TrEMBL record:
Name recorded for this polypeptide: Bifunctional NAD(P)H-hydrate repair enzyme
Protein family: In the C-terminal section; belongs to the NnrD/CARKD family.
Binding site for (6S)-NADPHX: 64-68, 132-138, 161, 263, 324, 371, 438
Catalytic activity, as annotated: (6R)-NADHX = (6S)-NADHX; (6R)-NADPHX = (6S)-NADPHX; (6S)-NADHX + ADP = AMP + phosphate + NADH + H(+); (6S)-NADPHX + ADP = AMP + phosphate + NADPH + H(+)
Function of the molecule: Bifunctional enzyme that catalyzes the epimerization of the S- and R-forms of NAD(P)HX and the dehydration of the S-form of NAD(P)HX at the expense of ADP, which is converted to AMP. This allows the repair of both epimers of NAD(P)HX, a damaged form of NAD(P)H that is a result of enzymatic or heat-dependent hydration.
Higher taxonomy: Bacteria, Pseudomonadati, Pseudomonadota, Gammaproteobacteria, Natronospirales
Protein source organism: Natronospira proteinivora
CDD domains named among the record's database cross-references: YXKO-related
Record keywords: ATP-binding, Isomerase, Lyase, Metal-binding, Multifunctional enzyme, NAD, NADP, Nucleotide-binding, Potassium
Subunit relationships: Homotetramer.
MF annotations from Gene Ontology: NAD(P)HX epimerase activity
Amino acid sequence: MTQVPEQALYTAAQVRELDRLAIEEAGIGGYPLMCRAGEAAFQRLRFFWPGGSGRLLVLTGPGNNGGDGYVIARLALEAGLMVSLIPAGDPEKLKGDAARARSDWLAAGGEEFRFEGRLPEDTGLIVDALLGTGLTRAPEGLIAELIELANSHPAPVFAVDCPTGLDADGGQILGTAMQAAHTSTFVGRKQGLYTGQARAVTGRIHFERLAVPDSVYQGTTPSAFLIERREVAEMLPPRQSTAHKGQHGHVVVMGGDHGMGGAALLAAESALRGGAGRVSLLTRPGHVSAALSRAPSLLVRGIRRPGQARPLLADADVIVLGPGLGQSRWGRGLWRLALESGRALVLDADALNLSAGQTDPLPPGSVITPHPGEAARLMGCSIPELERNRFDSATALAGRWRATVILKGAGSLVAAPDWPLRVCDAGNAGMAVAGMGDVLAGLVGALRAQGLEAREAATAAVWLHAAAGDLAARELGPRGLQPMDLFAPIMRLANPPEARR
């Protein structure tokens, strides 16, 4: 039987159904599954906190997430750790498996401490077992107070299944959320843990399958998949020993209005580093000398009037439009030429802003690369509305434009019509600087020109870009990271070791 993909992502409702199937059809049973979750989390916790210095503080809620917390607390007590447990609400009202977990905790000699306005000062680690994935609105009352106190406490937080206060589907913080250093999530990866505001509160995510058999997963189609290095490697075409530049495509980058020449140059150089056979840069005449000084292998043309670009597009395999384009008459003219060319497009920055409100379809095989502000303009909504559920927004954009969409941000998404979403869990805060998006756009163009389908080029480029940012940040540090720092790591990641011998 086919192994369930370890990179599969699910909605919270889908995981609840997987839980039900594991309990009822696979015969695991509700309480044994809860015990598996608690034991897996405890083993992960012990690896992260091997010394056990200080007291383990477990915060439990009114449902099964709280039951997981009781199991963790019992295992910790049996392992000889100092454990305090504070329930949020009346623990006598717990039902089913959670009530049984509480009973076993008390039978093992555990105690429940009443919350008295503060958390114990000798706490070395806080376990968040308050609400898990069932939250649909902002935490209130005691739970909200416990979140704020835990976040201000010097002890790190270990979240059980999902940090309390985080929407497990949309990836947004609902008012306030527990800021975890680690999160153990069970049975299926929850999609909302990997994008948007979630990246600020989940810490390192650990997937615990809990020995659920393959058969449980067979009838449930994942909502999305994490991008894997292996998947990207399989997408990249091998280089033949007899290859010539004409086989690796011609990318034309158009952009770089007055004062913005660097953006177009970054996109063009990224296309070179991404393996395109030829890269032409059509930009303002004043930027030509600087571009050739930086990258003499570029074919650079100074364009005073948009019409001068028309004959130069006939030989393009893909056009990258937007970096430094601006919205003046010059930029608008180039934008119209690109749309009329019929060539596959990679639209970024002002090319997206100019496209907002348009109804004409993009040429087949095009890719758009909006950040949330640009995506909101394309959707005709506010940024908060768009970010409420990035998965739904990316899917809607792909359907509206009949194109592949890269919705940028923490945990970038790749969406295409009739294709499962991809999510990138690489990348870091050092990449939040001007020019990083230009590098991504050029890289997408390079991969499209080398023959990858739009969705494959977008997926591979997003991962290569983010993973290269992580390599650069590890070497240089995230603060002060520059777009050019990604070029060498991109080449290392895009070339198998045997090609570098």
